Amino acid sequence: MSKNKNTYKFDNMEAFRKLKTNIEFSAVEKPIKVVNITSSCANEGKSTVAFHLAQVYAAKYKKVLVIDCDLRRPKMHRYFQISNQVGLSDLLVFIDKQPDLSTYIQEVTVTDCENAISVLTSGSKVPNPQELLGSSKFKKLLQALSKQYDFIILDCPPISMISDTFYVSNVSDGTIFVISMKDTKKDIALSSIRQLERSRSKILGIVLTKTQNLSSYDYYYTYE
Ligand SMILES: Nc1ncnc2c1ncn2[C@@H]1O[C@H](COP(=O)(O)OP(=O)(O)O)[C@@H](O)[C@H]1O
Ligand SMILES: [Mg+2]
Fold first, then answer.
1. Which CATH architecture has domain 3-22+33-178+198-222?
2. pTM above the 0.70 mark?
């Protein structure tokens, strides 16, 4: 497993600690172990939430994994400053050959974070992201990984244009829906939430990003 000693600085991690507590409290029947982060459109702050939430979980758990499921506009490798030469798409292609996971999953050391964070970047560009994410291979991979990791965060594409995320949210324990106070149109957000509900995704909560009256890195968490 490759080790990257990058250093990072964060604003307002308290908001993410609250988010983590809320996720934990939303687990009534079984503990939430796999969450996916999505929103209506691009640039609303999904990957930023995934990236920061991972730090907060890594303060508590030894084995936290982030998977970049946005195979169209991947960003996690940039946020963690690591290579995206191989990743999820490559791993799925070779999954039947029992590949060595450490070839695909990178460990990133983060400042002020006791435990390293494991990151599976998106990997090689593929023409059929939907097919890969909707495949039984992806489902099986996630089932296997959830036995090995304490917590898994799935960074997803937006849902207003493409349906990749519905496949991911169906195999995760819950969905965090991101709304940007600056960018998100109310009707598009509502329609996305309805689509998620129709696809039987369990929406755990809504995170508001880019809030106007407060620091732009304040996050709120609410869902009725
Ligand atoms: N809470 C926030 N306040 C201000 N800017 C933000 C916030 N969250 C994200 N951004 C910025 O918005 C842009 C898109 O963020 P990103 O998390 O990559 O979006 P997405 O994954 O939804 O496409 C980035 O430039 C990021 O720095
Ligand atoms: Mg993103």
1. 3-Layer(aba) Sandwich (3.40)
2. yes
